[in-house]
Design a protein that fits this description.
Elements: H1 3-12, E1 32-34, E2 42-43, H2 44-63, H3 73-117, H4 133-153, H5 158-163, H6 173-185, H7 187-219, H8 226-266
Antiparallel strand pairs: 1-2
């Protein structure tokens, strides 16, 4: 029996019908708060993004304002997070290029992480990356950095080698060139965008499903179906911790793939 069927069955024996309201995609498009109907429309999700960026800036400024040789807990926590990005940048790009692109990679990692985590904060309950605009903007930034790195390092042959890989027989270019164009210049930004977006959307919908079902079973069913609420609550709590891991992992993957794409553009074979 599905949750909706359970709600219908319970409601039939009650004087006031109760129905289960599951999650919907409309939750990602809350009503406009400011500038409704204009290109500058601001809703709750946009405000969440603003707050995420503001909190990230405050933590960065306050946490690095008075650095000490022997760091305290706050400074140590910030240094550990930054060191994760630094080691990744140096491992993929080398020390020289790693230093050049470290600010970009750190901004992507912490920006994505903070916006991912807002879905677990009471009062927010919505990820800043759960609508396509933010993942798409970040993917475009990574894409521009990749193109910039390639053209800067190999101005005369970056695009030529991207479309016409060396060592391939000339008569195969009619097949290889379209494949290289799509895989390098289309699929990379698209997959970066969709991977982050879909993970955040699905995570939000599952959390809403678990906790909506808990509320329905415990407060609206008025029968033995209330026992199901204990199970859905347990699943909701467990999945909340799992979402923290997913938020961290998606931020790391986005940053890692950006570094890898830049490294491919800088490679000598280009």
């Amino acid at each position: 029996m599905s949750l909706a069927d359970a709600g219908t069955t319970v409601a039939a024996g009650s004087s006031q019908a109760a129905t289960f309201q599951g999650p919907s995609i409309e939750q990602f498009f809350p009503p406009a708060i400011f500038f409704a109907g204009t290109p500058f429309e601001i809703d709750r999700l946009v405000i969440i993004r603003f707050i995420s960026v503001a909190v990230l800036l405050i933590i960065g400024i306050v946490g690095t304002r008075s650095l000490k040789l022997v760091p305290g807990r706050g400074q140590a926590f910030i240094e550990y997070g930054f060191d994760v990005v630094r080691r990744n940048a140096f491992d993929n790009l080398g020390e020289k290029d790693g230093r050049r692109f470290l600010p970009l990679l750190a901004s992507i990692f912490f920006g994505v992480l903070f916006m991912n985590l807002t879905g677990l904060i009471p009062g927010f309950n919505l990820q800043g990356t759960s609508r396509i605009a933010m993942p798409l903007i970040l993917a475009v930034i990574a894409y521009v950095a990749f193109i910039y790195a390639g053209l800067r390092r190999h101005p005369g042959k970056f695009l030529r080698n991207a479309f016409f890989p060396p060592g391939v027989p000339w008569y195969l270019y009619i097949i290889v060139t379209p494949i290289e164009f799509v895989s390098t210049f289309v699929l990379r930004p698209v997959t970066l965008t969709l991977r982050l977006l879909m993970n955040m959307v699905v995570g939000h919908l599952l959390l809403v499903l678990f906790f909506s079902a808990t509320s329905f079973f415990l407060f609206d069913s008025h029968s033995l179906f209330a026992l199901f609420g204990v199970g859905t609550l347990a699943f909701g709590i467990a999945f909340s911790f799992f979402e923290i891991l997913v938020a961290l992992l998606q931020a790391y993957v986005f940053m890692l793939l950006t570094a890898v794409y830049i490294q491919l553009a800088l490679a000598e074979e280009h």
